[in-house]
Amino acid sequence: MSEVANETLRADAPVAAQGSVKRYGIWGATAVLFLALPHIFTSGTALTMMSVMGIMIVFALSYNMLLGQTGMLSFGHAVYYGLGGFLVVHAMNTVVQGRLPVPVALIPLVGGLAGLVFGFIFGSVSTRRGGTAFAMISLGLGELVASSALILRSFFGGEEGITTNRTKLLPLFGLNFGPQMQVYYLIAAWCLLSMIAMYAITRTPFGRMCNAVRDNPERAEFIGYSTQRVRFIAFCLSGVFAGIAGGLAAVNFEIVNSVSVAAGQSGIVLLMTYIGGVGNFAGPVLGAILITYLQVMLSDATEVWQLYFGLLFIGMIMFAPGGIAGLLMMHQPLWRARVLHRVIPPYLLALVPGLVTLAGVCLAIEMTFRLTVRASEGSAMFFLHVPLDARSPLPWLVAALLAGGGFWLFRRTWPIVANAWSAALAVARPVRPAT
Amino acid sequence: MLELVIVSTLNGVLFGMLLFLMASGLTLIFSMMGVLNFAHASFYMLGAFFGFQLSQWIGFWPGLVVAPVLVGGIGALVERYGLRAVHRHGHVAELLFTFGLAFVIEEVVQMVWGKLPVDYRVPPSLDFTAFTVFSTNYPAFKMFELLTAIAIFVVLLGVLTRTRIGLVIQAALSHPNMVGMLGHNVPRIFMLVFGLGTALAAVAGVIAGPALVTQSNMAGLLGPILFVVVVVGGLGSLQGAFIASLLIGLVQTFAVAINLSLADIFGPLGVTVRPGLLTDIWQVTVAQIAPIIPYLLLVMILILRPSGLLGTRET
């Protein structure tokens, strides 16, 4: 992780006028992209999915303030997301009942405030220690809130949750936020603002101190900073943005239930952030988009999609700890030196047996599922539109052959990829501007 | 009242000993690698499901031996080919790896055995009443669970303190480099301890499965309590884990038996609370908040004594 920090520091060094244009240009481009997206993907499903993606981007980025920036592994981040959501729902209902002049566009702020307050309370207990102890305490606090949610029924609404109606709130400029399109733009605006704010925080001296506490807490203490205080502030700030994400979710779904504070939600945000990449600011954004997409698409295609998630996660930890963003950043020197095309043919060569292995493993998983849990529906099934019988030995043989043979071929392509990689890197290194 | 106290004490000690069966393995693994095995409760669940499946095929008693051996083998393989490879990416990656493993094990169990509870029954040879306290019949199987847990505890203690391999393990926990210099294969000792720890969790699963519900969410229910035990006891302290296991076992069992709420206590004094969003706090009984008591205990311990009851190290 220290390498990543060095990388960003180095990128910072030539801060010139063109740098600022580049920096603000990126946000401008993001804003334009957010505006244009509903006109590119016009279907209702796409709009709903993009709304959820926007919420998850804020949530994952807030999580990365802890994991990626400050090195705090939390297993209970959904607490701030969920409590933000609950308070927003209650605030919306209060506003409707009292006919208060509060527009729905400002209501996520309540979530942010709730995240701050609960971050302050729980953070003062849990951020005293870092590392494994913090992880365990966050888990305990998460379970505490999740269990309480089922006990305190009048606040959390039990299993059904609390519902609200966003159209009953004060309309703003004639917008009542009834149609999903208006909600999408509301989420997009909040998402963009939160992204800019969180990015700005990483650029402040405080953001740098967070990185120092992550990389070398002892040294940070020696310089005179209290690591405990840095962790605490980072924790509170992260709670704010998690609360905003929860508030946006409440506005979007018009319902919040105890699932949103539970361990599953904390797990999903961890998966998103890590798969996207914790070492890069854009990583959690990529992760949130990819995982939300996969959640919708995979859950349509297969019932055991969460197993594939878990396997993807473990694969990432073992082979690509930098996540997707880390993998992309690895190729930056090659891209700069214009030698990226040299590694693409070996990649394609490795991709084919890799996909074959994957198909074999998936086939075995799907057939097992069909024979065990879905045994009552018979053994006839479809895999990639191919009809087969899970009870006959032939498909099992095929699965074993695909997985085993594919993996054998896959292993044989590794040296080819490695050679092409080092050859390309050798060309790229000298060209890299010395700083 | 006396009946309640006796039965709750027995049940509490039993639950505590089961917790300790798992917490001991977890603590050993933590002392060894500095990593909390997030998937430890998942190995307990695997033990229960393997025990169930084996009891269908070859009976309960062979299953009691075979299931922990199988699970221990899986644990050793996970250490050898998973954790050891992740080790170079640091502690966070290791913790995340075990988290992912817990996720995958739960999904695999759901894929094979489904989400509904399986019919894992007490073996007929133990399906009778051991003794009767006043009017409560205490089942023999629970006594068997208790005795098994105590027997394993005694054997584990003996092996760790009285045998050569136990001394080597103890030495490897605190001074791995020195033990390596002396010619012992430290990575293999680590693999052995990991396998042993997961096998102990599996034993707990096999004997707890018929008494509790054998279901794919049992790891998710027990895992967090297990972490509370090791944090409250003090990370890395076996004695602390023992005390915390019994403490949490007893506290939780007694809490379930107490049917009092704030309204019951203060109501007769003339205190009333207007109905509102927070009336639940007023009316909820101790039995209802039993699930959150361990976590409240955790928070209190962290405020009063951050290193845990008998813990010595900070992280």
Number of strands of chain A: 4
Write down the CATH topology of the largest domain in chain A. Answer: ABC transporter involved in vitamin B12 uptake, BtuC
| SSE pattern of chain A | HHHHHHHEHHHHEHHHHHHEEH
Helical coverage of chain A, percent range: over 70%
Write structural notes for this entry.
The complex is a heterodimer of chains A (435) and B (315). Chain A has helices spanning 2-12, 17-40, 44-70, 78-98, 108-126, 131-151, 153-156, 180-203, 205-215, 217-223, 227-253, 263-276, 283-301, 305-319, 323-330, 332-336, 344-372, 393-431; strands at 162-163, 255-256, 380-383, 386-389. By secondary structure, chain A is an all-alpha fold. Chain A folds into two domains: 2-322, ABC transporter involved in vitamin B12 uptake, BtuC (Orthogonal Bundle); 334-431, no CATH class. The longest helix of chain A is centred in the last third of the chain and has 39 residues, at 393-431. Chain A is globular. Chain B has one domain (2-219, 238-259). In chain B, helix 2 runs antiparallel to helix 3, helix 2 crosses helix 9 (218-233) and helix 9 runs parallel beside helix 13 (293-304). The model of chain B has no long low-confidence stretch (mean pLDDT 85). The interface between A and B is large, with 48 and 54 residues.
Q: How are the secondary structure elements laid out?
A:
The complex is a heterodimer of chains A (435) and B (315).
Chain A: H1 2-12, H2 17-40, H3 44-70, H4 78-98, H5 108-126, H6 131-151, H7 153-156, E1 162-163, H8 180-203, H9 205-215, H10 217-223, H11 227-253, E2 255-256, H12 263-276, H13 283-301, H14 305-319, H15 323-330, H16 332-336, H17 344-372, E3 380-383, E4 386-389, H18 393-431
Antiparallel strand pairs in A: 1-2, 3-4
Chain B: H1 2-33, H2 40-57, H3 60-86, H4 91-113, E1 129-133, E2 136-139, H5 140-162, H6 164-174, H7 176-181, H8 186-208, H9 218-233, H10 238-257, H11 262-266, H12 279-283, H13 293-304
Antiparallel strand pairs in B: 1-2
Helix pairs in contact in B: 1-5, 1-8, 1-9, 1-10, 2-3, 2-4, 2-8, 2-9, 3-8, 5-6, 9-10, 9-13
